[in-house]
Amino acid sequence: MGGTFNPIHYGHLVAAEVARDAFELERVIFVPAGQPPHKGVIADAQHRYLMAFLATAANPWFELSRMEMDRPGPSFTSETLAHFHAQEPEALWYFITGADAVMDMPRWHAAEDIFQHAEVIAASRPGYAVRIEQVTAALPAAAGRVHHLEVPALAISSSAIRERLARGWSVRYLLPDAVMQYIRKNRLYGAGP
Ligand code: NAP
Fold first, then answer.
1. pLDDT range class, residue 73, cuts 50, 70, 90
2. Which ligand 1 atom sits nearest the alpha carbon of residue 2?
3. Which residue's CA is the nearest one to ligand 1's atom 2?
């Protein structure tokens, strides 16, 4: 489960749980991206990791990896998946992420390699038009290996949460309480205590 998780919210958690059922996954490993060259406010990787820890710790099927945070240089998904695949070559691996990110995959570093190591699950809110054929047209290796998963809880988004925090509005019920308290304690995203 790859993402910036800036911050992690119930949409991500529900998406992981729904994917676990739909694809009969043994476990879901959350891999917060290292520091991406992003637009907008992005919390330090350590903060994003700790928020992901608070959000996932109680679920016995969820794990958390520091791999992309600790690897120097940009976080390339192809390298991350090569690492996991090498650890358990017999396993069928899936890379779960947001559908917007999947649509962008043809522009990623070594994108074809991703499909040597894993299949891809593109999670979106219902009604989002995922054009998987655009991905497979650009990346022949992706043919039959990209799956769309609709998750109503993905109406929640990190950007909307950051915006609400900056305005001093409530984010209760959008993310776990422990994450909300962590954000306020550390005054992330312009949030007050
Ligand atoms: P993003 O562009 O910030 O997010 C795109 C959309 O997908 C947003 O709507 C986002 O919603 C949603 N999203 C992101 N992760 C999700 C998840 N795990 N489950 C459900 N929805 C999710 O994308 P990003 O977070 O930076 O990157 C996503 C993944 O792609 C990461 O693992 C990243 O390392 C990888 N990536 C790899 C490359 C490369 O290898 N060259 C390049 C770009 C991205 P929220 O904002 O609410 O999360």
1. confident
2. 32
3. 101
